[in-house]
Amino acid sequence: QVRLVESGGGWVQAGGSLRLSCAASESIVSLDVVGWFRQAPGKQRELVAYITSGGSTNYPDSVKGRFTISRDNAMNRVHLQMRSLKPEDTAVYYCNGRGKRDDYWGQGTQVTVSS
Questions:
Q1: What is the mean pLDDT of each run of 10 residues along the chain (115 residues)?
Q2: Between the CA atoms of 47, 91, 108 and 44, what dihedral angle is there, to the nearest 10 degrees?
Q3: With contact defined as beta carbons under 8 Å apart, do 80 and 67 qualify?
């Protein structure tokens, strides 16, 4: 079982930047896809970024051009660089990894963007 732990959340003014990190308990090479989801109060959890083992990335239009996902396989970490943050980005952000059989989730980290 892979354990994932997020860090880097906090409070930031609109237009600012944050970098989220996800530490994995074992090599993330074993995960086919890693990504970030977010969930705002009263809203469904939504995908904000993912990266495949082959390096392909995907972003929804809401964050495209502002967020960048990356993998550091040597350090067993996944990062989400967020810039030009907007109040609508406020949510709990969750790290996710998909293995051959199972999905793994972190506990989440709060991101709050004030206007």
A1: 94 98 92 96 96 95 98 94 98 95 95 97
A2: -50
A3: yes
